[in-house]
Amino acid sequence: MIDKLGFPSILANRWPHCHQERFFVVVSAFNLPKFDQMHAPCAVCGLNFESETGFYTGSLYVSYALFVAWTLTNFGLFALFLGIDVLSFLWPLIGSNAVLTPYFFRLACRIWFRIFMST
Ligand SMILES: [Zn+2]
Does the keyword section mention Membrane (predicted)? Predict the structure, then answer.
């Protein structure tokens, strides 16, 4: 079931279609000059990764949801569960959101692709 939803390929930077070619050219999301570069049509299955111009613009909604989930999870953990003052972890939380931006961007693109291009 989990494999049918494409979670392993989404998390492993693989195309949800053939599970072989890398979704993004570079492995690390933190290689900032190249973190957003995708392969041209897949070398294995030939699928075009960008079906239309601006296709991945919608992945911003997914990215937003990932940031909200990250922020609420950290707020729940630190403020509600551990009882730490909100102001003491607010700046580290904002910093973590900034650091995780390339990772969430890439994850959101893969999820978006999986939602609309799965076969
Ligand atoms: Zn492929």
Answer: yes
